[in-house]
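Shall we go through a protein fold together, starting from nothing but its sequence? Label the sequence line and the structure token line clearly, so we can match residues to local backbone shapes. Would you write everything just below, so we can both look at the same thing?
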Amino acid sequence: MKAEQLRDMTNMLDISETKDKYLTFWAGERIFGVSIADVVQIVQMQPFTEVPEFPDYARGIITLRGSIIPIVDVRKRFHMPDREYDDRTCIIVCSIAGDYLGFIVDRVDEVTFISQEEIAQPPSIAETDMADYLMGVSQREQHLILLMDMKNFLTQKQRDKLKQTM
């Protein structure tokens, strides 16, 4: 499914239609999912303005509909090797605690229904941040989808730091 189609789909959904729906995306060789309720918009990769003293995983800021939005490279946040952005690279803009935050991903996959019964508890991960934002795992065909809680992807302290440097 193309990013433009997904963008149109997310704009058409109302709250009752978001239950158990996830936007899946690729970062590296892994597929992730986020609740469609957290997704505001999907935009194609665009030029961004780098901000001094931003953390290394935060690429900079973009302007979208008059709002300044910090963008985070998911690959960098996961300590994956860099990859050149291409025509499939896009930014998933999410609403987190009243703030907008953009996440750069390799490509979006689809909007899919995943019932609570299809979600397994994530493995216990000691001493990592992943335990805070990995809310479950679901099997789809030959792939495991890592379901993320975007509200916890960055800590409040990390989100505050991004806002302070803007």
